[in-house]
Design goal:
The complex is a heterodimer. By secondary structure, chain A is of the alpha/beta class. Chain A contains 24 helices and 16 strands. In chain A, strand 15, helix 21 and strand 16 form a beta-alpha-beta unit. The N and C termini of chain B lie far apart (about 30 Å). The chains are: A alpha/beta, B alpha+beta. Chains A and B meet through helix 2, helix 3, helix 4 and helix 5 of A and helix 1 and helix 2 of B.
Chain lengths: ~575, ~90
């Protein structure tokens, strides 16, 4: 038995075999064949082709279920490439006439098509080379008996162990088969962590070198609450964890009681507890967990899933579904937040030395007003079907807000001229993620209807700490007095103008922070849906007055250690009095 | 042998999705079908060949078929292109 300690990012316990997710480079043997080997090579090729097609057919139905028809159609075109009679003939000819192995023949044929494609003048068509490359690699991996890449092919319960999970991999995380997630790198706020929490998959990240010491298929236990992974567990340990899992279940059942209760403080103040979502599919969980709205709809996932820029129509459809499903409850739609660690396949972004200080979010949108306006038009059109609000990410000053609002005004004028319905009084908010935005909140609030504090970035920019860097991750402290003072400034400034402030960063869903934020006057808490009951529970067990006293005291403290210790004491006292 | 010339209407040319529809329809016929543009041509039943032609919007293409259902084949494919595919 060995224990690995990492960062607990998504609670829960699971026991399952390891699926080691590694992509090994493809190595092709170009040595010539003996004459009598040709037939068997051709047979190998046929087998690999059949396997590839059946994998893709499976993938297609998964993509359809999870992501809808347009994603499934991408797989359709992949299947068509694999079943193309010309492709088979080309490979057959290469094996016969050049006397090379099937893998070498496949690579040669694919390369030849890729060259032809690179010469096409139409950019859109030229990009379809990616489809051919994708299919080619799949066939090669199958031919060389290499494990398939991607998490989409899993069809039995496993714990995925990987170096890292990229944002595009996370789209394929499927709760049915993925029982746990353990990675070498990453932390509480990486995309994998955020998604694991919303899917309720136990996850431990930042395990350093677990991929090097653990082997494919071995049984492991993952404890996402404690941040522990156990390999080769003894029967006794398996028993202990099974018992803990049961207890966890009971606790969760108790927590469930809070789901549908209003988040009212003991002295009768109603607090808005809402959820963060990444796609229309997440809305169901929001309703199930008693979310009273959506405080952050991350629209970039729609863009990340797509091979092309989602059209106005495609965007409109997605936003409309969310608006309608939430039936009049407020939904804050954040305009695309790409850049940083979020890349798009449909949009070329320069490689930057400091992507988090680079071309991202609103900065891209203001430089590419055509893209931005399409999104604003889609949101406006969907606003006729529910209660939508617009929020701009990464604003660092009022001039950016003015520019964004000017484009919004253009979009509104266009729709008006076209006679298309929309909510002309739609509220527009600013996401407070930079210290500069927090410090100029008084200027921003004059031209905005609300604020929402994105604590993940605000914390990273205020403390100058890269939240992905494991060496300094202990410096990433949302309870740092510097961060808390900015939060207080933002809330107070909004209130002085009679406007509201929400919070959609990870801190909003941390029950340890709830009392403090409540006391600071936060109006809306937005988090992964599954955290809602716990936060509601804290709110329902304290008075606003009591929380204000706690906040006041917290704000006099000088270090995050002191604050954390104090808030833990507050929590324990509350728990014992409940 | 039967053939017709048609101009591609849809905005993105004959890219993956329309090309898939085009090839899908072509494979339902018995005839040998070819699609040609300028000096290049390809098997209309092969997605790779069709995509390789890189047919952009506004391009004139010739569709030719040889076989017992050649007329229906060409007319159906031309109709698909003229309809702008799913639009």
């Amino acid at each position: 038995m060995s224990i690995f300690k990492g960062i607990p990012v998504s609670a829960g316990i699971a026991t399952a075999p390891v699926y080691l997710y590694k992509t090994e480079p493809i190595v092709i043997d170009y040595s010539p064949l003996l004459l009598n080997q040709k037939e068997s090579e051709l047979q190998e090729f046929s087998k690999a082709l059949t396997l590839s097609i059946s994998q893709m057919t499976k993938l297609r139905s998964k993509a359809y279920e999870r992501l809808g028809e347009s994603s499934a159609e991408i797989i359709d075109s992949h299947i068509m490439i694999a079943t193309d009679p010309s492709f088979y003939k080309d490979v057959e000819r290469e094996i016969h006439s050049c006397c090379i192995r099937a893998a070498a023949a496949v690579e040669k044929v694919i390369k030849c098509y890729l060259t032809t494609f690179s010469e096409i003048s139409d950019e859109y068509l030229r990009e379809r080379a990616a489809d051919i490359k994708d299919v080619g690699e799949r066939i090669l991996r199958n031919l060389l008996k290499m494990p398939p890449t991607g998490l989409e092919l899993l069809d039995n319960a496993v714990i995925v162990v990987a170096k890292d999970i990229s944002p595009s991999d996370t789209i394929m995380l499927d709760k049915t088969y993925i029982k746990g997630l353990a990675t070498d790198v990453g932390g509480r706020t990486s995309h994998a962590a955020i998604l694991a929490r919303s899917l309720e998959i136990p996850a431990v990240l930042g395990l350093k070198n677990i991929t090097e010491v653990i082997s494919q298929g071995e049984q492991i236990i993952i404890d996402g609450s404690e941040g522990i992974v156990l390999s080769n567990p003894t029967t006794k340990e398996i028993g202990v964890y099974a018992e803990r899992k049961e207890k966890e279940k009971t606790r969760k059942a108790q927590m469930d009681a809070f789901k549908l209760m209003p988040a009212d403080t003991l002295d009768g103040h109603n607090i808005h507890v809402v959820a963060n979502i990444g796609s229309p599919d997440d809305v169901e969980a929001v309703i199930q967990y008693g979310g009273e709205g959506i405080g952050l709809y991350r629209t970039e996932f729609l863009f990340m899933k797509s091979a092309h820029f989602p059209t106005e129509e495609e965007q409109f459809k997605a936003y409309k579904v969310v608006a309608e499903k939430m039936a009049g409850k407020p939904v804050i739609v954040r305009t695309i937040d790409i850049g940083g660690d979020k890349k798009l396949t449909c949009f070329n972004m320069p490689i930057e030395l400091n992507p988090f200080l680079g071309w991202r979010a609103i900065r891209i949108c203001l430089d590419e007003p055509a893209i931005f306006k399409i999104q604003l038009r889609a949101i406006l059109r969907a606003s006729a079907f529910g209660n939508l609000l617009i929020m701009y990410p990464m604003i660092s000053g009022v001039s950016e807000l003015r520019k964004a609002n000017a484009i919004l005004a253009e979009a509104k004028a266009e729709l008006q001229a076209e006679g298309i319905q929309f909510d002309s009084a739609i509220k527009v908010g600013v996401m407070i993620e930079t210290p500069a935005a927090a410090l100029t909140a008084d200027c921003l609030i004059k031209e905005a209807d609300f604020f929402s504090i994105g604590t993940n970035d605000l914390c990273q920019y205020t403390l100058a700490v890269d939240r992905m860097n494991e060496k300094i991750c202990d410096l990433y402290q949302p309870f740092h007095p510097g961060v808390l003072r900015l939060i207080k400034t933002v809330i107070d400034t909004a209130h002085a103008s009679g406007k509201f402030t929400g919070m959609c960063g990870e801190t909003a869903g941390d029950p340890l922070a709830t009392t403090l934020l409540l006391g600071l006057g936060l109006d809306e808490f937005s988090m992964s849906a599954s955290l809602i009951p716990e936060v509601k529970k804290v709110i329902r067990n304290i008075s606003l007055k009591g929380a204000q006293n706690i906040a006041e005291r917290t704000m006099t403290m000088e270090t995050h250690e002191e604050i954390t210790a104090y808030l833990k004491k507050v929590r324990d006292n509350l728990t014992s009095s409940i | 042998m039967y053939s017709q010339v048609v101009t591609l209407q849809n905005a993105t040319g004959l890219h993956a999705r329309p090309a898939t529809q085009f090839v899908n329809l072509a494979t339902t016929f018995q005839s040998q079908i070819s699609i040609s543009v300028a000096d290049k041509d390809g098997d209309a039943k092969s997605i790779l060949k069709v995509l390789s032609l890189g047919i952009a919007q506004g391009t004139q293409v010739k569709i030719a078929a040889e076989g017992h259902d050649e007329k229906t084949a060409v007319e159906s494919l031309v109709m698909l292109i003229e309809s702008g595919f799913d639009k």
